[in-house]
Design goal:
The chain is of the alpha/beta class. The protein is 37% helix and 15% strand. Among the domains are: 10-94, no CATH class; 303-484, TIM Barrel; 486-618, Gcn5-related N-acetyltransferase (GNAT) (Aminopeptidase), CATH 3.40.630. The protein contains 22 helices and 14 strands. It has a seven-stranded parallel β-sheet with strand order 1-2-3-4-5-6-7.
């Protein structure tokens, strides 16, 4: 663990342990505000802000949404009418965060050597490779000393305080190349995420224990002030890996030796010691199956050249259901110029292995790389969906930005690389959106890099909106999933119909089943794979595979209902039964599902039984 005194200090402490007001002391003004909100369902955000100014908390402050939410939870059913989920939703901050049906929790791994030397990649040695300390998610990670328990618990607490549900969690693990970290660290990291979810669900907060352990070992951790500005992309003297190994040498040695000692039973463990066994992780998995706070998805990111049959099955054992994988380009010449370290053949092989194992494939793609051009990028994007070897389920489009610590600075200085103009980039992205099939979700367009870190290039973070506006001028919209999600719309079962989109991959026939409205807004979908080759593991012999089920709309808590809500129309069950019919029609004796830990109980109720890594239903 990389403790910095400036992180687990005043700033982090205040964020993790925000003081709450005395609700009884503020009872009268809070009830007055809440009564007004309850009786005015049409109250706009502007009117609410005006109300808060008229009934202030103090001379110079207003009540926050967090405080209103806390008061509503406390007084509903006593001083206020019985609890109503719709009231909480009206008070909720940033409702879009859970509008896709799940609550995402992103955690970052610690700084660690990376097998790549990509010239476009930032070299901020305070962060895991490719991340910058000014990015929002990276800031949260550093403020919590990259500890998985602190990151997870604090994020869940933040969601709860702002009125979001915390029972269906998608865990997103970012940072460098996951497969390059030691296995003992990976097992420990994921187990501690589950520990945080379980403690949070029980109302038990152990963050002070973790922080105390970090403070106790503070002398082993470098001060971040001593490692800023260690790499200058214009004239690199030491690369990221060399600096990281130098700066964190003592910590890496200690972590390795301690893990060995713990494994031999010679050393007791503290909450921050990076060691856990497979058996301990599997016990955490078992608890999570019926926990109040469940994992409905677990995502890691890695490189194509670190994917092998053994690796995909090992990652599956960790509980992973989706893999973020850096395609970056499908042009060997461009990959070579950018020192990517692998070729397109490696990407083809990785995608096939991941698909055979049932994973959702979340690709990263980068236009404006050194050696490419706008028209070449459009053709590259076309190839990604035209060729059966690729066809990702989700995609992040990250136009190359010039960061001062990246080696690309040298190509910019000698004039061999320059950023696309605004119009060139808009042209590339508009054409890319048009080429995106309905089965793919464009998760993000433009990386959330602060403009202060970008030397030259696009600094607009709302480029997706610009692209959508440009499409709208021509009477078009993006066909991708994200553009079609029902989100906050009221949806009735009668207006939905089941649409089936069939396409081929390198090793399967893929069926994308989607419930859509007449305007093709999407309420839910299922990804079904019909394998054409021998399985990657004997467990999947003769099995068709459900790779993903997702029902859209504002996330609702397990067991709750909502009129007109897509999440509670029974779409998931109907999609499964149609998948069963298709698998039977194509003579598959069983149907497998790559279930998340927290969805196992859901699938058991629908006829699936537990296997070693998958759940299966006999047909």
């Amino acid at each position: 663990m990389f403790f910095k005194a400036s992180c687990i200090g005043l700033k982090s402490y205040l964020m993790s342990h925000r003081e709450t007001i005395d609700l009884q002391q503020h009872r009268e003004p809070l009830l007055k505000i809440l009564h007004h909100i309850i009786t005015r369902p049409d109250l706009s955000r502007r009117e609410l802000d005006q109300l808060l100014r008229e009934i202030p908390k103090g001379r110079d402050s207003m009540y926050s949404r967090d405080e209103l939410i806390s008061a509503y939870r406390a007084f509903a059913g006593t001083a206020l009418p019985p609890f109503d989920q719709s009231i909480l939703e009206r008070l909720r901050r940033k409702p879009v965060r859970t509008s896709s049906g799940v609550t995402p929790v992103t955690v970052l791994t610690k700084p660690f050597p990376c097998p790549g030397e990509c010239i476009f990649c930032p070299n901020d040695v305070r962060m895991p490779k490719s991340y910058l300390s000014d990015e929002p998610g990276a800031q949260r990670a550093e403020q919590n000393s990259f500890d998985p328990y602190l990151q997870t618990y604090t994020r869940l607490q933040s969601y709860h305080n702002t009125g979001h549900p915390t029972d269906k969690i998608e865990i997103i693990i970012l940072g460098g190349t996951w497969s390059f970290y030691p296995e003992s660290y990976q097992i420990w990291f994921i187990k501690r995420i589950f520990d945080a979810m379980h403690d949070f669900g029980r109302g038990q907060d152990r963050r002070s224990e973790v922080e105390a352990a970090l403070r106790e070992k503070s002398q082993l951790h470098p001060d971040r002030n001593t490692i800023t500005a260690t790499i200058d992309g214009r004239h690199i003297e030491k690369r990221y890996n060399a600096v990281v190994q130098l700066v964190y040498k003592d910590e890496m040695t200690r972590s390795y030796e301690l893990a060995q000692a713990i494994a031999r039973g010679e050393q007791p463990r503290s909450p921050i010691d990076e060691f856990a066994t497979w058996e301990e992780l599997e016990a955490a998995h078992l608890e999570n199956e019926t926990a109040p706070c469940r994992s409905v998805g677990l995502v890691i990111e890695t490189r194509p050249d670190h994917i092998s049959p053994e690796e995909v099955l090992r990652v599956r054992r960790l509980g992973c259901t989706k893999v973020q994988i850096g395609f970056q380009s499908l042009n060997d010449h461009v990959l070579r110029l950018n020192k990517r370290g692998h070729n397109v053949a490696a990407t083809r092989r990785a995608v096939k292995l991941l698909r055979q194992a049932g994973f959702k494939i979340h690709a990263h793609w980068m236009p404006n790389l050194y050696g490419s051009s706008p028209e070449a990028d459009i053709e590259d994007y076309r190839r990604m969906f035209d060729e059966v070897d690729f066809r990702p389920d989700e995609l992040k489009v990250y136009p190359c930005s010039l960061i001062e610590s990246a080696e690309l600075m040298q190509r910019y200085q000698d004039g061999s690389w320059k950023p696309y103009t605004h119009d060139e980039l808009l042209h590339v992205l508009v054409e890319s959106f048009r080429l995106t099939p309905e089965y793919c979700r464009l998760t993000r367009v433009i990386r959330d890099i602060p403009s202060t870190d970008i030397v030259v290039g696009n600094q607009m973070t709302n480029f997706r909106q610009l692209v959508e506006n440009e499409l709208a001028k021509h009477g078009e919209r993006s066909p991708d999933i994200r553009a079609r999600e029902v989100r906050f719309k009221s949806v009735e079962a009668a207006e939905l119909h089941l649409d089936e989109l069939w396409y081929q991959s390198s090793c399967t026939d893929e069926v994308f089943l989607q419930y859509i409205t007449p305007s093709r807004d999407i309420a839910g979908f299922l990804r079904l794979s019909l394998p054409k080759e021998p399985p990657i593991t004997d467990e999947l012999a003769g099995a068709a595979m459900i790779r993903e089920i997702h029902v859209y709309g504002q996330s609702l808590e397990i067991g709750t209902t909502g009129e007109g809500r897509a999440q509670h129309l029974g779409l998931g069950k109907q999609l499964i039964e149609r998948a069963v019919e298709i698998a039977r029609e194509h003579n598959y004796p069983q149907l497998a599902v790559i279930s998340a830990i927290g969805t196992r109980e859901y699938y058991r109720k629908r006829g699936f039984v537990d296997g070693k890594l998958y759940q299966l239903r006999a047909l």
